[in-house]
Amino acid sequence: MSEIQNVTVLGAGVLGSQIVMQAAYAGKNVVAYDIKQEFLDKLPARWEWMRGHYAKDLSAFTAEKFDDAVGRITTSTDIAEAVGDADVVIEAVPENLDLKKEVWGNVGKAVKDSAILLTNSSSLRPSDFADATGRADRFLALHFANMVWRSNTGEVMATPKTDPAVFDRTVEFAREINLQPFPVHKETPGYLLNSLLIPWLDAAGDLYANEVANPHVIDEDWKVSTGAPKGPFETYDIVGFNVAVNIGRNRPDATESQKKFNNLLQERGIDQGKAGLGDGCGFYEYDGNGRIVRPNPDWIIYED
């Protein structure tokens, strides 16, 4: 049996909740932490949403196994309590450097010396806040993709201060929770996936912000031209507007069109409770099985 049995996930949002279930479904005991009980109260509905996707996407799915996973999940709004017994801590809080430093400072005071400390940061360099943990040798990145049970990548990226043995153990931990690990040997913001993905999404956002075409038209052109299964705006829905906005707000080099698009994601999406696939509506409206019903009229510029 693995010596890693207790996992704590900091942040119970769209991706954080998926990480919780990914670890619990793999047999780990998981504590889901968030700052407010109201965020944690949303998790049972998230489990039922995921249940349908697990049943559809995983050939070995059983309802009993999923129920057992739910039974291994507990919740907490007390960070010291949440991490006290953790063998691994995974942070999935918003992309804000000061916030991450604050959270990891609190974790470092309460976590046991043997714990592995992992950030799921999408675009910040882990070394920029590694020292906040007080144990930078045990700190590194494990980056998850959205819809993690299906897109089960685990990018493992060390900082210059990470103990190589901890890096190797994290690669093994990724396998234990049913990820395919991808070692990243030189620290870079965005890892492998987001270094490729973000410029592509930026280009789509620029097209929309400059009123060049409707989102579904841009998506369809991309898919027909390249044979890709999804276009950039479908991908925005999968990633979730909250993640995109948090990344955008922390980019000092953002262009005017990127700022405009970021504001539109906030105003038309997040503020309306329509922030992507997790809400059942983003650039597209979705049915209960996550299938596109139609483009969301709120984002239509032209009647094509």
Q: Can you tag this structure with a few keywords?
A:
NAD+ binding, 3-hydroxybutyryl-CoA dehydrogenase activity, 6PGD_dom2, N-(1-d-carboxylethyl)-l-norvaline Dehydrogenase, domain 2, 10 strands, about 45% helix, alpha/beta, Rossmann fold, globular, 3-hydroxyacyl-CoA dehydrogenase, about 300 residues
State Rg: 19 Å
Coarse structural class? alpha/beta
| Count of DSSP H/I helices | 12
Q: Could you give the order of strands across the largest sheet?
A: 3-2-1-4-5-6-7-8
Approximately how much beta-strand content do the residues carry? 15-25%
Q: What's the CATH H-level homologous superfamily of the largest domain?
A: NAD(P)-binding Rossmann-like Domain
Straight-line N-to-C gap: 58 Å
Order of helices and strands: EHEHHHEHEHEEEHEHHHHHEE
- The parts where pLDDT drops under 50 for at least 5 residues are none
Q: How would you sum up the major sheet?
A: 8 strands, mixed
Assign the CATH architecture of the largest domain.
3-Layer(aba) Sandwich
What's the CATH class of the largest domain, please? Alpha Beta
**How many structural domains does the protein architecture include?**
2
Global mean pLDDT: 95
CATH fold title of the largest domain: Rossmann fold
The strand count comes to: 10
- Helix coverage percent: 40-55%
Outline, from the CA principal axes? Answer: globular
